[in-house]
Amino acid sequence: MKLWHAPARALPVTVRPLGGETVISYARRLAEANELPATAIMRALGQLSQGSGYHLFEHDAWLNEQALDRLQAYSGVSRPGLTRALPALRRQPSGLPMPADRPALHIYRPWPRARQACRPCTLRASGRSGPPVMVRPWPSPLICRRHKRWLGTPGETAQYDLSAAGEVLTADRRRTRLLAGSTDRNWAGGIFSTAWQITGWWADSAPDRFPVLSRRWRTRAGALGIPPATRVPAVVTFPEAVTLAEILTDLNWRRHVAMVSPLDLDIFYKHVARRMGEKSCPSWPRNDPLRGWADWHRGKFAGIRDKTWAKAALRPQPFPEIRHFK
Predict the structure, then answer these.
(1) Tens-place pLDDT, residues 234-272
(2) Whole-model pTM?
(3) What ranges make up the beta strands (E) of 126-259?
(4) CA distances from 56 to 4, 82, 103 (A)
(5) Which of 118, 185, 280, 311 has the highest Cβ tally under 10 A?
(6) What are the counts of helices (DSSP H) followed by strands (DSSP E) for the chain?
(7) How far apart are CA 9 and CA 288, in angstroms?
(8) Are 21 and 135 in contact (CB under 8 A)?
(9) CB 255 within 8 Å of CB 322
(10) Prior bond to 17 cis, omega within 30?
Protein backbone atom coordinates (compact mmCIF):
# COMPACT_ATOMS: atom_id res chain seq x y z
CA MET A 1 0.00 0.00 0.00
CA LYS A 2 1.32 3.42 -0.98
CA LEU A 3 1.14 6.46 1.29
CA TRP A 4 -1.19 8.18 -1.17
CA HIS A 5 -3.70 5.34 -0.79
CA ALA A 6 -4.42 6.43 2.81
CA PRO A 7 -6.98 9.18 3.51
CA ALA A 8 -5.44 12.67 3.87
CA ARG A 9 -5.99 14.33 7.25
CA ALA A 10 -4.78 17.58 8.75
CA LEU A 11 -1.35 17.25 10.37
CA PRO A 12 -0.75 18.34 13.99
CA VAL A 13 1.80 21.01 13.01
CA THR A 14 0.91 23.48 10.26
CA VAL A 15 3.53 25.27 8.17
CA ARG A 16 2.98 28.49 6.24
CA PRO A 17 4.23 28.41 2.62
CA LEU A 18 6.51 31.24 1.55
CA GLY A 19 5.82 33.24 -1.60
CA GLY A 20 7.45 31.65 -4.64
CA GLU A 21 8.20 28.37 -2.85
CA THR A 22 8.32 25.09 -4.75
CA VAL A 23 5.78 22.37 -3.98
CA ILE A 24 8.60 19.95 -3.14
CA SER A 25 10.20 22.40 -0.68
CA TYR A 26 6.89 23.01 1.05
CA ALA A 27 6.10 19.29 1.26
CA ARG A 28 9.51 18.64 2.80
CA ARG A 29 9.12 21.37 5.42
CA LEU A 30 5.62 20.13 6.25
CA ALA A 31 6.95 16.60 6.73
CA GLU A 32 9.93 17.54 8.87
CA ALA A 33 7.87 19.91 11.04
CA ASN A 34 5.71 16.88 11.91
CA GLU A 35 8.78 14.68 12.53
CA LEU A 36 8.11 12.56 9.45
CA PRO A 37 10.69 11.39 6.90
CA ALA A 38 11.61 14.28 4.58
CA THR A 39 9.94 12.71 1.54
CA ALA A 40 6.82 11.43 3.36
CA ILE A 41 4.37 14.21 2.40
CA MET A 42 5.67 14.31 -1.17
CA ARG A 43 4.94 10.56 -1.47
CA ALA A 44 1.61 10.91 0.33
CA LEU A 45 0.28 13.54 -2.07
CA GLY A 46 0.01 11.14 -5.00
CA GLN A 47 1.77 8.92 -7.46
CA LEU A 48 5.09 10.48 -8.50
CA SER A 49 6.17 10.70 -12.12
CA GLN A 50 9.69 9.69 -11.06
CA GLY A 51 11.50 8.38 -7.97
CA SER A 52 11.05 9.89 -4.52
CA GLY A 53 14.66 10.38 -3.42
CA TYR A 54 16.39 13.37 -1.89
CA HIS A 55 17.66 14.39 -5.33
CA LEU A 56 14.18 15.86 -5.98
CA PHE A 57 14.48 18.64 -3.40
CA GLU A 58 15.60 21.14 -6.06
CA HIS A 59 12.70 20.14 -8.33
CA ASP A 60 9.11 21.35 -8.44
CA ALA A 61 5.84 19.53 -9.16
CA TRP A 62 2.56 19.98 -10.95
CA LEU A 63 -0.39 18.43 -9.11
CA ASN A 64 -3.66 17.11 -10.45
CA GLU A 65 -6.89 18.02 -8.65
CA GLN A 66 -6.85 15.01 -6.34
CA ALA A 67 -3.26 15.64 -5.24
CA LEU A 68 -4.03 19.30 -4.65
CA ASP A 69 -6.99 18.29 -2.44
CA ARG A 70 -4.63 16.12 -0.41
CA LEU A 71 -2.10 18.95 0.00
CA GLN A 72 -4.89 21.22 1.23
CA ALA A 73 -5.98 18.57 3.74
CA TYR A 74 -2.47 17.89 5.07
CA SER A 75 -1.44 21.56 5.30
CA GLY A 76 -4.66 23.09 6.61
CA VAL A 77 -4.08 25.95 4.12
CA SER A 78 -6.88 26.87 1.74
CA ARG A 79 -6.51 26.22 -1.95
CA PRO A 80 -6.38 29.96 -2.80
CA GLY A 81 -3.66 30.40 -0.16
CA LEU A 82 -1.63 27.55 -1.59
CA THR A 83 -2.07 28.81 -5.14
CA ARG A 84 -0.93 32.33 -4.23
CA ALA A 85 2.22 31.05 -2.56
CA LEU A 86 3.26 28.11 -4.76
CA PRO A 87 3.82 29.14 -8.42
CA ALA A 88 3.56 25.58 -9.79
CA LEU A 89 -0.09 25.43 -8.73
CA ARG A 90 -1.10 28.48 -10.78
CA ARG A 91 -0.68 26.96 -14.22
CA GLN A 92 -0.35 23.43 -15.54
CA PRO A 93 1.02 23.04 -19.09
CA SER A 94 -1.60 22.06 -21.62
CA GLY A 95 -1.22 18.55 -22.95
CA LEU A 96 0.55 17.26 -19.85
CA PRO A 97 -0.71 13.69 -19.29
CA MET A 98 -1.99 13.45 -15.71
CA PRO A 99 -4.09 10.49 -14.54
CA ALA A 100 -7.70 11.25 -13.65
CA ASP A 101 -8.34 8.15 -11.54
CA ARG A 102 -5.74 8.76 -8.80
CA PRO A 103 -3.79 11.61 -7.18
CA ALA A 104 -0.59 12.30 -9.07
CA LEU A 105 2.41 14.65 -9.20
CA HIS A 106 4.48 15.42 -12.26
CA ILE A 107 8.01 16.15 -11.03
CA TYR A 108 10.13 18.49 -13.14
CA ARG A 109 13.27 20.59 -12.85
CA PRO A 110 12.26 24.25 -13.11
CA TRP A 111 14.19 26.78 -15.14
CA PRO A 112 15.58 29.04 -13.87
CA ARG A 113 16.62 26.67 -11.10
CA ALA A 114 15.07 27.01 -7.66
CA ARG A 115 17.25 28.80 -5.12
CA GLN A 116 17.25 29.29 -1.38
CA ALA A 117 14.92 31.93 0.03
CA CYS A 118 16.05 34.82 2.22
CA ARG A 119 17.99 33.26 5.10
CA PRO A 120 16.27 35.22 7.90
CA CYS A 121 12.90 34.31 6.34
CA THR A 122 13.99 30.67 6.29
CA LEU A 123 14.91 30.85 9.97
CA ARG A 124 11.47 32.25 10.78
CA ALA A 125 9.74 29.60 8.67
CA SER A 126 11.82 26.50 9.49
CA GLY A 127 13.94 27.30 12.54
CA ARG A 128 17.70 26.85 12.82
CA SER A 129 17.61 23.11 12.33
CA GLY A 130 14.89 23.06 9.67
CA PRO A 131 15.35 22.41 5.95
CA PRO A 132 16.07 25.22 3.47
CA VAL A 133 13.20 26.95 1.71
CA MET A 134 13.55 26.65 -2.07
CA VAL A 135 11.86 29.37 -4.13
CA ARG A 136 11.41 30.03 -7.84
CA PRO A 137 13.48 33.09 -8.86
CA TRP A 138 11.02 34.85 -11.16
CA PRO A 139 7.92 34.77 -8.92
CA SER A 140 10.00 35.75 -5.88
CA PRO A 141 11.47 39.27 -5.58
CA LEU A 142 15.05 40.41 -6.07
CA ILE A 143 15.04 41.85 -2.54
CA CYS A 144 13.53 40.78 0.76
CA ARG A 145 12.28 44.10 2.06
CA ARG A 146 11.47 42.75 5.51
CA HIS A 147 15.12 41.90 6.14
CA LYS A 148 16.78 44.32 3.66
CA ARG A 149 18.51 41.44 1.93
CA TRP A 150 19.52 41.02 -1.71
CA LEU A 151 18.30 37.69 -3.08
CA GLY A 152 19.37 38.34 -6.63
CA THR A 153 18.85 36.97 -10.10
CA PRO A 154 18.40 33.28 -10.98
CA GLY A 155 22.13 32.70 -11.45
CA GLU A 156 23.20 34.22 -8.14
CA THR A 157 23.77 32.31 -4.93
CA ALA A 158 25.19 35.06 -2.70
CA GLN A 159 22.84 37.10 -0.52
CA TYR A 160 23.87 40.58 0.62
CA ASP A 161 22.80 42.67 3.59
CA LEU A 162 21.54 45.97 2.13
CA SER A 163 21.43 47.91 5.40
CA ALA A 164 24.46 49.97 4.32
CA ALA A 165 23.31 50.33 0.69
CA GLY A 166 19.97 52.11 0.92
CA GLU A 167 20.19 53.25 -2.71
CA VAL A 168 19.67 49.62 -3.79
CA LEU A 169 16.41 49.48 -1.82
CA THR A 170 15.33 52.80 -3.33
CA ALA A 171 16.20 51.55 -6.82
CA ASP A 172 14.06 48.47 -6.27
CA ARG A 173 11.06 50.68 -5.51
CA ARG A 174 11.77 52.68 -8.68
CA ARG A 175 11.99 49.48 -10.69
CA THR A 176 8.65 48.33 -9.26
CA ARG A 177 7.06 51.65 -10.27
CA LEU A 178 8.63 51.41 -13.72
CA LEU A 179 7.15 47.96 -14.36
CA ALA A 180 3.80 48.79 -12.78
CA GLY A 181 3.51 52.03 -14.76
CA SER A 182 4.05 50.40 -18.14
CA THR A 183 1.14 49.20 -20.23
CA ASP A 184 3.38 46.29 -21.28
CA ARG A 185 5.15 44.88 -18.23
CA ASN A 186 7.04 42.25 -20.21
CA TRP A 187 8.39 44.89 -22.60
CA ALA A 188 9.52 47.09 -19.71
CA GLY A 189 11.08 44.09 -17.98
CA GLY A 190 13.01 43.22 -21.13
CA ILE A 191 14.32 46.78 -21.42
CA PHE A 192 15.41 46.67 -17.78
CA SER A 193 17.33 43.43 -18.43
CA THR A 194 19.07 45.10 -21.37
CA ALA A 195 19.96 48.12 -19.23
CA TRP A 196 21.37 45.86 -16.53
CA GLN A 197 23.54 44.04 -19.06
CA ILE A 198 24.85 47.40 -20.30
CA THR A 199 25.79 48.68 -16.83
CA GLY A 200 27.40 45.34 -16.01
CA TRP A 201 29.53 45.62 -19.15
CA TRP A 202 30.58 49.14 -18.17
CA ALA A 203 31.63 47.98 -14.72
CA ASP A 204 33.65 45.02 -16.04
CA SER A 205 35.03 46.30 -19.34
CA ALA A 206 35.12 50.10 -19.33
CA PRO A 207 35.54 51.39 -15.75
CA ASP A 208 38.11 54.03 -16.77
CA ARG A 209 35.55 55.73 -19.05
CA PHE A 210 33.21 56.31 -16.10
CA PRO A 211 35.25 57.72 -13.19
CA VAL A 212 32.25 58.82 -11.11
CA LEU A 213 30.43 55.53 -11.63
CA SER A 214 33.57 53.52 -10.91
CA ARG A 215 34.12 55.26 -7.56
CA ARG A 216 30.46 54.81 -6.68
CA TRP A 217 30.54 51.12 -7.54
CA ARG A 218 33.73 50.54 -5.51
CA THR A 219 32.15 52.29 -2.53
CA ARG A 220 28.93 50.28 -2.85
CA ALA A 221 30.83 47.01 -3.21
CA GLY A 222 32.76 47.82 -0.04
CA ALA A 223 29.55 48.59 1.84
CA LEU A 224 28.19 45.19 0.76
CA GLY A 225 31.35 43.38 1.85
CA ILE A 226 32.43 42.42 -1.67
CA PRO A 227 36.24 42.08 -2.02
CA PRO A 228 37.83 44.58 -4.45
CA ALA A 229 39.32 41.92 -6.71
CA THR A 230 35.99 40.15 -7.18
CA ARG A 231 34.13 40.42 -10.50
CA VAL A 232 31.42 43.04 -10.06
CA PRO A 233 28.17 41.27 -9.10
CA ALA A 234 24.83 42.42 -10.46
CA VAL A 235 23.73 44.08 -7.20
CA VAL A 236 26.49 46.69 -7.49
CA THR A 237 25.19 48.14 -10.77
CA PHE A 238 21.49 47.61 -10.01
CA PRO A 239 20.60 51.28 -9.19
CA GLU A 240 22.26 52.55 -12.38
CA ALA A 241 20.53 49.84 -14.39
CA VAL A 242 17.19 51.16 -13.13
CA THR A 243 18.20 54.71 -14.10
CA LEU A 244 19.20 53.60 -17.59
CA ALA A 245 15.99 51.56 -17.95
CA GLU A 246 13.96 54.67 -17.10
CA ILE A 247 15.66 56.41 -20.05
CA LEU A 248 15.37 53.52 -22.48
CA THR A 249 11.66 53.08 -21.77
CA ASP A 250 10.97 56.81 -22.18
CA LEU A 251 9.12 57.02 -25.50
CA ASN A 252 10.30 60.59 -26.09
CA TRP A 253 13.94 59.49 -25.92
CA ARG A 254 13.20 56.40 -27.98
CA ARG A 255 11.73 58.62 -30.70
CA HIS A 256 14.73 60.95 -30.47
CA VAL A 257 17.22 58.10 -30.94
CA ALA A 258 15.19 56.61 -33.80
CA MET A 259 14.58 59.79 -35.79
CA VAL A 260 17.35 62.37 -35.37
CA SER A 261 20.43 62.73 -37.55
CA PRO A 262 23.58 60.89 -36.35
CA LEU A 263 25.10 64.15 -35.15
CA ASP A 264 22.17 64.80 -32.82
CA LEU A 265 22.55 61.43 -31.10
CA ASP A 266 25.14 63.14 -28.90
CA ILE A 267 22.23 64.79 -27.04
CA PHE A 268 21.04 61.33 -25.98
CA TYR A 269 24.48 60.21 -24.82
CA LYS A 270 25.00 63.42 -22.83
CA HIS A 271 21.62 62.91 -21.16
CA VAL A 272 22.60 59.37 -20.14
CA ALA A 273 25.94 60.57 -18.76
CA ARG A 274 24.23 63.35 -16.80
CA ARG A 275 21.66 60.96 -15.30
CA MET A 276 24.49 58.63 -14.30
CA GLY A 277 26.21 61.50 -12.48
CA GLU A 278 29.21 61.84 -14.80
CA LYS A 279 30.54 65.39 -15.02
CA SER A 280 31.42 65.05 -18.70
CA CYS A 281 30.18 62.84 -21.48
CA PRO A 282 32.50 59.83 -21.96
CA SER A 283 33.41 58.44 -25.34
CA TRP A 284 31.01 55.93 -26.86
CA PRO A 285 33.08 53.59 -29.05
CA ARG A 286 31.50 51.22 -31.52
CA ASN A 287 31.78 48.25 -29.14
CA ASP A 288 29.92 50.01 -26.33
CA PRO A 289 26.62 48.17 -25.70
CA LEU A 290 24.65 51.42 -25.35
CA ARG A 291 25.94 52.48 -28.76
CA GLY A 292 24.96 49.03 -30.02
CA TRP A 293 21.46 49.44 -28.58
CA ALA A 294 21.09 52.86 -30.27
CA ASP A 295 22.23 51.44 -33.63
CA TRP A 296 19.80 48.51 -33.29
CA HIS A 297 16.93 50.82 -32.35
CA ARG A 298 17.65 53.17 -35.26
CA GLY A 299 17.74 50.18 -37.59
CA LYS A 300 14.19 49.23 -36.58
CA PHE A 301 12.90 52.64 -37.70
CA ALA A 302 15.21 53.34 -40.64
CA GLY A 303 12.32 53.28 -43.14
CA ILE A 304 10.20 55.75 -41.17
CA ARG A 305 13.21 58.00 -40.58
CA ASP A 306 14.26 58.07 -44.24
CA LYS A 307 10.72 58.75 -45.43
CA THR A 308 10.23 61.57 -42.89
CA TRP A 309 13.52 63.26 -43.76
CA ALA A 310 12.85 62.92 -47.51
CA LYS A 311 9.55 64.75 -47.12
CA ALA A 312 11.23 67.33 -44.88
CA ALA A 313 13.43 68.34 -47.80
CA LEU A 314 10.28 69.75 -49.42
CA ARG A 315 8.37 70.84 -46.33
CA PRO A 316 9.11 70.58 -42.56
CA GLN A 317 7.67 67.35 -41.18
CA PRO A 318 6.79 66.51 -37.57
CA PHE A 319 8.10 63.25 -36.21
CA PRO A 320 5.53 60.45 -35.72
CA GLU A 321 3.82 60.19 -32.34
CA ILE A 322 5.87 58.65 -29.56
CA ARG A 323 3.59 55.60 -29.24
CA HIS A 324 5.10 54.21 -32.45
CA PHE A 325 8.59 53.82 -30.96
CA LYS A 326 8.30 50.93 -28.51
Answers:
(1) 999 999 999 999 999 999 999 999 999 998 999 999 999
(2) 0.81
(3) 134-135, 143-144, 149-150, 160-161
(4) 18, 20, 19
(5) 118
(6) 13, 8
(7) 61
(8) yes
(9) yes
(10) no
